[in-house]
């Protein structure tokens, strides 16, 4: 019996014999024989223990040695998730993209989850645009209402997160996506509260950047208008001090020194005006974030692509 088993294994190794993916092995036979269940459970156990690199290897072995097993799709998806949680976002996005393209059933749970995970992978890489495109493309393919509602909710979250970025305001897009959610899920997700928060943020008190720049003609005036009193005091004292020093130098027949001080002061004076305009924009953005933060929670994050900090939307959906 032992020699027969060895002979069958050799034939299977060279592809001569096409055996099923699992074998019934008598308990009294020596050696180690791994079944599909054993391999899958071992890989899943590694994944649950957050040993994601080892889990990837074992799931790949499962797919290779048991290609006909019905858990093939789940293993393939879990490899992508393991890549994501190990910080290999680009490789994870490629894995999920392969699952989406190769699947014939676009409404299968693994395709659906792959779309959302691929979107998250792009977002983790700092590419929110691609993350939105993935969801918008799947929105055109799926026929499931619950999935569509989830996509609308996720798109709204991304637009709100982008709004906290300086120079961006996507609250109108966020509102539009929230309104597209079905009435039943609007109640479940408490969309009414989210819409109210967005409306309050849109109509938040603002400071005019133009007026701030005009008021900055008097050093510190723009900062004072933007309620940055300490900066206003420093700007006023520093600029007036340099102006007085330049005047004194010219008054004492020292044009060379007066010219140098005037040149230096012109830079600080221009900075005073530019800083006041920027302060107005920052005031307006801070006012929006303060209102949004009453319903949506943000935390600091690092953009790995642009090497810059941003506010990440964590809760509220």
Automatic annotation (TrEMBL):
Top-level division of the source organism's lineage: Bacteria
InterPro entries (UniProt xref): TPR-like_helical_dom_sf
Record protein name field: Uncharacterized protein
Species for this entry: Desulfobacter postgatei 2ac9
